Amino acid sequence: MSDFFKNHKFSILLLLTGIAFYGSFAYDLNRADFIKLISLYTGLFFISFKLIQLEKNNFWLLAGTAVLFRFVFIAATPNLSQDFYRFIWDGQLILDGINPYLSVPNDFSPALSLRQQNLIEGMGSLSAGNFTSYPPVNQLLFAISTFLGGKGILGSVIAMRVFIILADLGTLYFGRKLLLKLNLPGHQIFWFILNPFIIIELTGNLHFEGVMLFFLTWSIYLLHQKKWIWSAILLGISVS
């Protein structure tokens, strides 16, 4: 163990610095503070670049780092996007037996609970005044996350975040396998998995493109294996 720390001390320092930076991004960033935002982004890109450069042959260290960076956000309320309020709203409608595609949130006024009022206020007037734009697989995940989260908004946020993290890990798994099948360096998948933009926008701000990319990557891998029927099914799920 001592030899490991000795041989990887700079990488460990980068890892700890990255955790601190992501922590600041998740829990101590005002979205209007552009200087702090761009400084954290720049620092995190440098950290990811150096980690991949130094540890490209150490899969488990890079994979563990990717997981740790994501779990920094686990209890954070997204501070660069308010879309998650609409996700929870749609999920709750499904749990209540209401089709989310047939109404807009503002239609439910004025008979709203305090939680519903908070969701509408959080999602903003644009979202509250329009029909939902999220496709069926998204809606299923919204409903499951809202169910798992109970009555609290943060609980639903955590449940959605876990789904997105698991999807990224699936992309790491199938993406690396696909690269190796194509005789490309397996560590190249970390240019995606450790990319600060990916971590912040998907795990941090709860955007479900990460789930879409997981099914897409899995589909391409199966297509390469000539399992085109399952590949087509997964591509359809990705689109949905």
Provide a short characterization of the protein structure:
This protein has helices spanning 2-7, 9-27, 34-55, 59-71, 83-95, 114-128, 136-149, 153-181, 190-193, 196-204, 209-224, 228-239. The protein has 240 residues and is an all-alpha fold.
Classify the beta-strand content into a percent band.
under 5%
Backbone shape: globular
Q: End-to-end distance, in Å?
A: 46 Å
What integer is the average pLDDT?
Answer: 93
Q: How many strand units?
A: 0
Q: Helix/strand-derived class?
A: mainly alpha
Order of helices and strands: HHHHHHHHHHHH
Question: Can you tell me the residue ranges where pLDDT is under 50 for at least 5 consecutive residues?
Answer: none
Q: Sheet bearing the most strands, described?
A: none
DSSP helix count? 12
Structural features:
240 residues, mainly alpha, 12 helices, 72% helix
Can you characterise this structure?
With 240 residues, this protein is mainly α. It has twelve helices and no strands. The longest helix has 29 residues, at 153-181. The radius of gyration is 20 Å and the shape is globular.
Topology:
Layout (H helix, E strand, L loop, with lengths): L1 H6 L1 H19 L6 H22 L3 H13 L11 H13 L18 H15 L7 H14 L3 H29 L8 H4 L2 H9 L4 H16 L3 H12 L1
